Amino acid sequence: MSRMIQSVRWPLALSILMLGGMASALAQTDSPVCAQEAREQAQRLLDFHVGGDDRIFIDPEVVEKAPLRNPANPKQSFQVLEVRGMILKGQYRMRLIYYRFEDSCVLMGQEILEYASL
Questions:
Q1: What is the chain's alpha carbon radius of gyration, rounded to the nearest angstrom?
Q2: How high is the pLDDT of residue 34?
């Protein structure tokens, strides 16, 4: 009986390890479409906002937010991507708004907000 239990444990343990490895690989590559464009645009936006500084840091994580309806055509929606950045002690949240057209990411809008307690 114990040999039978041991023979079942190995395939089960191996299956669990394989599933865990596949899940972590998917999580690492699961970035939103247009994420690379959003990081690049966030760098340019923050650079413009602070007047050019080589100490800008853009967080590599891009978070997809709820889509935004196109005000000119309610049948269309825009992808909203949030990127965080900082320079010295200043922290910023940037939201980049894209329209997906075939394989292209068309920038439709952007906003930047500095975190501050006033």
A1: 22
A2: 92
Q: 3-class SS at 72?
A: coil
Q: What is the mean pLDDT of each run of 10 residues along the chain (118 residues)?
A: 53 47 48 91 92 87 96 95 92 95 92 90
- Distance separating alpha carbons of residues 59 and 48, to the nearest angstrom: 17
pLDDT of residue 14: 41
Q: For strand 57-70 and strand 104-114, is the pairing parallel, antiparallel, or unpaired?
A: unpaired
Sequence letter at residue 93: R
Q: What is the 3 state secondary structure string of the chain?
A: CHHHHHHHHHHHHHHHHHHHHHHHHHHHHCCCCCHHHHHHHHHHHHHHHHCCCCCCEEEEEEEEEEEEEECCEEEEEEEEEEEEEEECCEEEEEEEEEEEECCEEEEEEEEEEECCCC
Interior angle at CA 75, CA 38 and CA 36, nearest 5: 10
Give residue 17's pLDDT: 43
